Amino acid sequence: MGVSISWLAVSDIEPEAIHKQLGLLSSREFDADIKYPFAGRVLPSGWYLVVANRCDSPMVRDDMLSSLSMSARVVAASVEEHVMYCFSTCWLNGKQEWRVQHEAEKGTTHLEVSGVPPEELETLRQGALARQLCHDDEIGVDYVFDVPLELAKRVVGFRHDESAPGPELEFFEILKVDERAETPLKRERWKFW
């Protein structure tokens, strides 16, 4: 079973301000697992991280990232391991600085890049392509999938499939949706008519 999540990390802004913008509330409950609809924590790098337990969370849509980035730099990612799809992106002052996306359905070497990503991208890309060539005859091997996620990790210090050092850094605060807030993060309700 593969992971399906979205996350965003924000620099230089208090967690409560991010919660308010996203329409989330602190629960003061903690867990090491990110199985909840939303969870958050301060990373050792100082970035504040919010994780959504679905790859297509509204919090990583362009309009939300643009709004959040008006007051701070925002790095976001979406991961759908079932189909080997992921992207990472960085926003500042309401504008996207860069985006790196991999879709295995377009080929194991597919990597779509826009904007001006960090210089590390080329090193990550070349390393992944070299490993891919060495293992291309193995079914299910996709090294390029790691490139957007590793790039985001180099910026903020988080990757969904790696543990943080130290037990106190492994815990996430469970975040609840503020039902009173107008937010796109509320669960979409099915209408049968």
Task: Jot down its keywords.
single chain, 193 residues, alpha+beta, 9-stranded antiparallel beta sheet, 4 helices, 22% helix, disordered C terminus
Any overview of this molecule?
The two termini are 33 Å apart. Strands 2-9-3-4-1-5-6-7-8 form a nine-stranded antiparallel β-sheet, sandwiched between helices. The longest helix is centred in the middle third of the chain and has 16 residues, at 120-135. It is built from four helices and nine strands. It has 193 residues and is of the alpha+beta class.
Average pLDDT works out at 89
The biggest beta sheet is recorded as: 9 strands, antiparallel
Measured between the Cα atoms of the first and last residue, the distance is 33 Å
How many strand elements? Answer: 9
In the sheet with the most strands, the strands line up as: 2-9-3-4-1-5-6-7-8
Structural class: alpha+beta
Silhouette:
globular
Tell me the radius of gyration: 17 Å
Strand content: 25-35%
In total, how many domains does the architecture comprise?
1
- Helix percent reads 10-25%
Q: Name the helix and strand elements from N-terminus to C-terminus, one letter apiece.
A: EHEEEHEEEEHHE
The low-confidence parts are 188-193
Total DSSP helices: 4
